From TrEMBL:
ABC transporter domain: residues covered: 4-255, 319-537
GO terms assigned for molecular function: ATP binding; ATP hydrolysis activity; DNA binding
Record key words, sorted: ATP-binding, Coiled coil, Nucleotide-binding, Repeat
UniProt cross-references to InterPro entries, sorted A to Z: AAA+_ATPase (IPR003593), ABC_tran_C (IPR032524), ABC_tran_Xtn (IPR032781), ABC_transporter-like_ATP-bd (IPR003439), ABC_transporter-like_CS (IPR017871), ABCF_ATPase (IPR051309), P-loop_NTPase (IPR027417), Val-tRNA_synth_C_sf (IPR037118)
Coiled coil: 534-597
Pfam families linked to this entry: ABC_tran, ABC_tran_CTD, ABC_tran_Xtn
Gene of this entry: ettA_36
Taxonomic source organism: bioreactor metagenome
PROSITE patterns for this protein: ABC_TRANSPORTER_1, ABC_TRANSPORTER_2
Taxonomic lineage of the native organism: unclassified sequences, metagenomes, ecological metagenomes
Protein name: Energy-dependent translational throttle protein EttA
Amino acid sequence: MNLITLENICKSYSEKTLLDNIKLNITDEDKIGIIGVNGTGKSTLLKIIAGVENCDSGSIIKMNGLKINYLPQELDFNGKDTVMEAVFKGDLEVMETLRQYERVVGELQTHSGDKNLQEQLFSLNSKLDALNGWQIESEAKAILTKLNITDFSQRMGELSGGQRKRVALCNVLISPCHLLILDEPTNHMDNELIDYLEELLKSRKSAVLMITHDRYFLDRITNKIFEVDNGSLDSYVGNYSTFLEKKMERVAMLESLEKKRQNLYKNELAWIRRGAQARSTKQKARIQRFEEIRDSKIEVKEDTVEINTASSRLGKKVIEAYNISKSYENKVLIKDFTYIVTKEDRIGIIGSNGIGKTTLLNILGGKLKPTTGEVVFGETVKLRYFTQENTDMNPNLRVIEYIKEVAEYITTADGSKITASQMLERFLFEGSMQFTFISKLSGGEKRRLYLLKVLMEAPNVLLLDEPTNDLDIETLTILEDYIDNFNGSVIVVSHDRYFLDRIINKVFSFEGNGEVLQLVGNYSDYREYKETIIEEVLEEKVSVEKKNKNLEKNKNDKPIKFTFKEQKEFEEIDDKIEAKELELEEIQNKINKSGSDFVLLQELLSFESKLKEELEFLMDRWTYLNEIYEQIQASKK
């Protein structure tokens, strides 16, 4: 079923054309990933499809009643809302009712005797029963818990940026829709959360349209790729791996066509240079043909990011950490950590959010002192740090001015010199864009510019803190190539599994309680190791259970009989169960007749819960005693 069609969509900002006659179609079975260099209009395209931004021209045809849920990069939230109120944000009746319910429950905590609030709560309870709202509430709490948001009454203004993003993600996941649109949903998520989101989206029945730099995430979820490039959009059926194969075939075909065009151009050029005069219609047509071939160059060259700077010489001694520990207010983040960094090291630091990854990186980089232990640096170390924030980026500087603060030119690995302007061109800052103020750049363009500045400083030890956040896939690919050829040490904190598999040869994994596991290999090697450990634990558990069963069997070989107390209990338990069931039935009748008396209702519900627990206990005892009785009867045969 077709959901939405875009025809000849155009969008420009000032003199920059982002989208030029874009055409696309989305069906209910599509799970689409949008890729492209930062600043090419990916997020703008999402906004146009979501209906939060208008196009300059073109038409959009939507299915009648189309419901779209949209998660933007920049969140709009009310800091006074609780987590649950924010989760139930939306214009659907069930979401509005849940939001009202959360508000009334919150007010009753401070005004428990307010009759008006009690009546509102009773009315909302009935309405949610009719709308099946409790299922949505249960699903919301389950998703929030999986996303490590457990205080549902906390105010949005008290949460970190990453936590707010997860609350907003929960909102779009629980609200029914035909098309789910996500802009960088995995940013600021650890690997465990990304795995969970993967499973949710794979099993989701609605269409999905998303921007993400996480290539494993793309590969495992999508069945179609949209590539945005120079104002145009190309569609590829299949996941990210299939896209790469088809893109290579397309580029090879274009290169072949361009080669044929150039050969034809040479022949026509030779004819023109022989001085042929345009005396006939045939000759005039041939000259016209030459001009057409000359002007019809096939664009094969892709925008690429090239990094080939020389690094400073690095001696044998790099960074040595001895018995490092770090605590904050009695919370141990790192405990007794020792490691000697070598020149060949490509280290990936992994673990859940807030566990201490950046703290360890800061200690190894000399930005933070450990509580105990010491860090020693080699004399030749030239360390540069790519942080999560674009530090020292003056928005009033132009792009070229920002880079020239490092150097007017740099020396490459082969000894040649490249000017700051030429280096910017290699980073896709061409022509007039070099004179653009930094304040006008997109978030991804700022990250790319900041990365260029760090690499132009020719470090021999590179520390990267979540480098994949806000960088496009093409920049990441070339950064990976740069690290492959980097003549120095690299230590990186990242949640990007593809990036980690591509570059690292050693893992530091935070296991909890300050313990840091050191493992040789990449991220997939680490996952395999952990799965092996889990299998061994499960096998040990099965072995222990088997031994316990054997012990129980040996124990059961002895004569079986009731104790005096058990015999008496067995004789009376049926009557006790019947009496308890009658008592419970009586309370439930009173609940149904309680009307809007909120105080009485709360008392009855509390008593009902207690009776259910007592009945459950009696039923468990009945099962246990009957098993013994059956064994006694069997032993007599």
